[in-house]
Structure formats: C-alpha cells, structure tokens
Amino acid sequence: xxxxxxGKKIADNxxxxxxxxxxxxxxxxxxxxxxxxxxxxxxxDAEKIKxxxxxxxxxxxGCTVDCFFVQK
Length: 72
Prior knowledge:
The chain is built from four helices and no strands. α1 crosses α3 and α1 packs parallel to α4.
C-alpha cells in the first residue's frame, strides 16, 4: 500500500473545486493573502501545501478537506 501524498492529484482537485464553486483565482489570492505565482503552484503540484491552507480553501469552496484527496 502506497502511503504517499499525490501532490498533482491534490492540485487537480483544488482547481476542480475552485471551478465548481465559481471562485476566481484573484479571490483566493486575496483571501489567503498570497501572490499569483504561489497560488498557481498550488494548482500545479500541491505536495507541500499546508493543512491550514487546505482548510481555508475548503471553506471558500464549500467543500470538505477530504475532497482534495479523493481520486476523481
């Protein structure tokens, strides 16, 4: 059993949930107080994203944190 985090899958799910919630990148950047390159990195490969950031994203997108880890 593989026990590794798939940063690419998490990134894909972040992007999918953001799109589903109809939230702009600009809104996310403002809420998290991060730059565009930082957020773009989250949507490319989120292997090193912090749990606190995932919690904030889940609240913004109206989903649960586990949505970011599910194979869709």
